[in-house]
Description:
- This protein is about 30% helix and about 20% strand.
- It has 16 helices and 19 strands.
- It has an eight-stranded mixed β-sheet with strand order 5-4-3-6-2-1-7-8, sandwiched between helices.
- β14 and β15 form a beta hairpin.
- It is globular and about 95 Å long.
Amino acid sequence: MSSWQYDVPVTDSTRLPPDAGYAKALTNQGYGFEVAVADLIDNSIDAGADSVVVHFLCDADRVVSLLVLDNGQGMDDAGLDSAMTVGRRRNYGGRALGMYGTGLKAASLSHARSLTVISRTKRSRAAGRKLTAEGIEDGFRCDTVDPQFAQQQIDVYDGLIEWHGTIVRWDRVRAFETVSTGQSEQFLSEAISRLETHLGLYLHRFLSRGLKLDIAVWDVETGDETDHISVEPLDPFGYKVPGKAGYPKVFTAPVEGVGDVRLEAHIWPAKSKQAGFRHIGALSDRQGFYFYRNDRLVQAGGWNNLRRPEGHLALARIAVDLPEDGNRVFSLDVKKEGVQVTPAFTRGTEEATETAGTSFAAYLTDSEAAYREGASRSAIERPPVIAPGKGFDPKVKRTVAEELPLKGGEEPISIEWTALPQDQFFDLDRENHTILLNRAFRDDFNDGRHGGANDAPVTKALLYLLLQDCFGLGRWERKRADRIEYWNSILLASAHAQRERRLRAST
């Protein structure tokens, strides 16, 4: 008879608090800079924030601190103590982005030797806690921030944190301290570019639904904001036309231990220049599975042992939303940038089919065929254009850059509303590279609402396409001037028709 036992018997228990040496392990989790900042923003989203700012602070020629600010629900003293306790795991809701309760500390202390969290709720005063690498080594000591200083920090960001919110602050950041004199501007430019791409990709579903996420640079000596960008969603499935008709297709994979798993299979158009295809990393790394947990991207590409990456599958991407009860098959690393799967998932994927009976293997064949067809198709050379500039929506500017080669050495074309004679819909200020629109019609193209600097995007984009080749010329031809004249007449009639239609709708 076998003596095997499934459960190992025990006789006693004892509690073993973590050794102070755990601080070294906590600060060496392998978090990349962008991954660590994204982890902090996850906490902001979990706190209900709809506006987040990543703020780099500079003093003269040095980058000194980084802050992540949000307008979430905030924390009181007890909440701060809990958040800063090393090893304490929170009770997360079913849709929370947090998982293990270590992200705030591990992500922060992987890059900074000092972590400060200041927060305020609707019912509690501003309070703060400070955790340092030395404090953890000294018996996990956590310091209480002076309440007056905490309130001052909240007041500085009053435009964002009005009644409640949180500031996470990194000081003594290792990367900042190693930037040599005169190199901080280049370092910041590269760091912000990488951060914008990472956040735009991994949080693209939240950004598409209205999360406002900005990256700003502030000079602490002058109080001036020296740079500010809004992070746009970078959708890895955001093509305009699929690479093969009929896609995307939804496949159902029977995965043992989980049940049916939904695989949304996409084929990108060959040779796409869109940012969501080309600007998120090497194409060989970005083919394959895109796993999401609670709408947050946690793996951007990779075949998870299903097959090896190869050039002919560069157009194949599959979106997978991890099932809530899938822990037996899917395991997510603490940094939330990779998923481990058991063989049950790969077997289920190989057996996956869609409603019309198409197999997953046929999808891979279709992806390879689309790639080969695109590679054999002779490229049409598109003429270069002058880039659109001030007054155009950022999405328009990005798409122009994706679709068309840009002329070098030319000032971008701006567009603005201004006073013009009533018989003109537009005019050209060629000397200043500006398209002028008759502001008498502005309300008509904004449905009567107040328009911002980038308003009426369709109208402005169409005018840009019509008029961009009128700039940067030496001689102004009579034929071109005549074309501008009849375009103006036709568009003026269209503008009057637009106004009449709006007025009828309002009565």
